[in-house]
Predict the 3D structure of the following.
Amino acid sequence: MPPPRPELLRHPLPGDLHRSPVEPGSGWPEDPAEPGTRVARTPAGVVRSAAASRTTEQLDARVSVCRACPRLVAWREEVAATGRRAYRDQPYWGRPISGWGDAHAPLLVVGLAPAAHGGNRTGRVFTGDRSGDWIFAALHRAGLAAQERSDHAGDGQHLTGVRIAAAVRCAPPDNLPTPDERAACAPWLDREVQLVRPRVLLALGGIAWDASLACARRLGWAVPRPAPRFGHGARAVLALPGQDGGGAVHLVGSYHVSQQNTSTGRLTEAMLDDAVALAAALAGLPGAGAPGPRG
Ligand code: SF4
């Protein structure tokens, strides 16, 4: 690790000075929290705080200040304090990453966890790294994201009918949360699904697929047995019509947008577009299924 950086650094867009990690309510673009936002400090606290969240906005705020996993809190803040060489002049968010996009989106994209120098730096899910470039570009081609790229909070990016969330909200060492950390974070996703009420979950990767199935089971939905197997383009029905007060809830699988997959051709733009189009069509999003030109 390189030595600690200056205490205050300028955000790339508004240019305001911030500490790393960022203090809640200190003016960071899109920060959902305030200085007095309720902080969960234990897994039991996550359960209570998530269940007591009455709106998506309140949930987002509480997620963004969570401190329930000591290993992940230490890691995200250490990364934030030191930074990567390419970003040493930028402040790092260094806090959990809330879901982002429409508060009541019919399509919820589910990822694994934020990247240490992506979401953990920018404060927005899938923002500021190569994986994010792929999913935001695909959503843009499908007419669901205002811009092709998502580089920084406050950059004007906007999602329509879509929300993106991670199964685990803090950047983990080696991109690998422990089973206990996944379990501790799960109530945030459960409550997000209850509040957002998506019609489709698009799982990026097998871990997100399993997390989505587990979420559906905890919510008491009719998850098929044996459990549907993950695959690119795989789909399943998680909730029957009327079970959560609306129509059926579908699960769609896509290979993860990791560099390991995209650089080897395991996941191509065409494959990702097909998965997004299927998910968007099941979600009833207008214009779904007609991706624009690929870059
Ligand atoms: S991983 Fe989830 S439960 Fe653990 S500290 Fe981060 S937000 Fe809280």
The chain has a mean pLDDT of 93.
